[in-house]
Input
Amino acid sequence: VLGLLLPKYLETVIYGALLQASASELGARMTAMGSATDNAQELISKLVLNYNKVRQATITREISEIVGGAEALK
Output
């Protein structure tokens, strides 16, 4: 009986260890991808803010040029 149970027990223990290793790897991947997603969202927010500042500065400059030109024509 022991000769039949011992190999099955060892097989089960090894299989369990492989499952644990696989689950651990997947957990680490999920954590890394979560961090990458957070970093990407932060970068996107910074870039959008910078874009809007540049766009607003361009609009302000163009309005100033138009007003200056209109004043010069008077």
In short: The first helix runs from residue 2 to 73. Residues 19 and 25 are 10 Å apart (CA to CA).
